[in-house]
Amino acid sequence: MYSKAILTLVVTFFLFFSASAQSCTLDIGGKNIDLIVKVFQLNEKQVTAMEEIRAELEVTSKAIKDDIQKLFDQHPQSSPEQLTTLAEKYKMLQQKLIDASYESDKKLLVMFNERQYERYLSLCVEALLDPIRVDPVQMGDAVDPK
Length: 146
Description:
Layout: H1 2-19, E1 23-24, H2 33-40, H3 44-74, H4 80-110, H5 114-126, E2 130-131
Parallel strand pairs: 1-2
């Protein structure tokens, strides 16, 4: 009797947390770029690539934010139906922002070597977040030899 109840509780708990797990993002579009470089010991090539990815994300994000502003400025908002339509369109644009950020993080993660990616995975596990799955590059240490 108790084992069946415990099993049900465990399965429910697992399904709840697996269904609501948030992605473990690096947020390369954010303000903590220096922290990313330091924590993952990015080499010069990776830092340059991250800056390029970040610039691409900035352009994409600005275009989407402009679309959001245009939506608010031009979409009718007189009736509940119009507001519902506005909310649905807004939600789609917000998802585009999230997707762009996710893809940018993924582009950088692909450039991680195995040690850097293992560090990323361990930090995600500590934070109870769902890591972005990629195949890290097969190369030497993360830090340039000097």
